[in-house]
What we know:
- Fe cation binds at residues 77, 79, 121, 123.
- One of its GO terms (molecular function) is metal ion binding.
- Residues 211-315 form the Pirin C-terminal domain.
- Residues 68-143 form the Pirin N-terminal domain.
- Keywords: Iron, Metal-binding.
- This protein has 348 residues and is mainly beta.
- The protein has two domains: 19-50 and 60-163 and 289-317, Jelly Rolls; 165-286, Jelly Rolls, CATH 2.60.120.
- The chain is 4% helix and 40% strand.
- The strands form five sheets. The protein has a seven-stranded antiparallel beta sheet with strand order 1-19-16-21-14-13-12, with no helix packed on it.
- The longest helix is centred in the C-terminal third of the chain and has 14 residues, at 299-312.
- It starts with 8 loop residues before the first strand and ends in a 13-residue tail after the last strand.
- The model has no long low-confidence stretch (mean pLDDT 95).
Amino acid sequence: MSNTPSTPVLQSQPLGPLWPTLDPFLFCAHHDDAYPAGNASFGPAVPVDDRQIGSDFSRKDGWSMYHGDTVPGFPGHPHRGFETVTLVRKGLIDHSDSLGAAARFGGGDVQWVTAGKGIVHSEMFPLLNASEPNPLELFQIWLNLPARHKMVEPHFTMLWNERIPRLVHHDEAGRATTVTVVAGALPAAPAPLAPPPESWASQPGADVAIWTLRLDPGAQWPMPAAQGEGTRRMLYFFVGDGLRVGPQEVREHAAMEVDARQDWLLTNTGPTVMELLVLQGRPIGEPVAQYGPFVMNTQQEIMQAMQDYRRTQFGGWPWPDSDPVHGTEARRFARYPGQAEDEVPAAA
């Protein structure tokens, strides 16, 4: 479509397992798993013999084991050169890493990890409820780092649900839109929590925003223009029956690049609640070389990352297992590197 003021949607494609992204974002996955009741080992209390254990992305019966053997999830694996931002909508995740950090988080919490020069972490999905299903839903977003920050020290932080700012907007008919502001300033909303210090989201003029939107049936919300020059914006329509962006109708779930230079009125045209994810930022504009969990600027740097990991294991793994689970209690906590006490989330 032509890039004109009357054309808010610049490009669009249906949603698949992996959602398309724009620089500075590298990757966006939406995991939505209808896990059954759990067993004594925090795994599914149903047979898994017919799955490709160790690499199960089958979605059989509505869920996958991923790389987990007993517990679903992703046992210890390395990263270098970018950041992971994990937004949990349902369920709980157990995090452990080579820094010695640990966390159990979920229900609206966000974990933000700067891999920098190298980190190893595990992300396990313990099925704590033995009598009822254990649904899990999350977004994992990869945000690139500029070349000057590729080799910074790794950093781990939690943004607790109770502290993440939200804007509740009522249109003229009183219908509500709730915007959860994970990152990026939003007019009329409380100030966002600070991203990690070396993140692209912390750099002046980067204009990075990560928002989730929930619109009541019929609700309208004036999505403001981006603040930065050259900012690009992706809008992901993943829940609901109908969306209108300015004058354009969107009837199928889709990933859309929208013109970030102008305000656009978003309208939920369906009879049910609509939900959207917004990712925006000014492009880093540097070459991207990627090999699995490593994202650098050149193939030579990728080779160096692989050699460094083989040689150092990015500091080693301080846990007795590759897939640690943090007990039976469904409590949320974080333990930061060098701290002996757990940090329990509290309202702001």
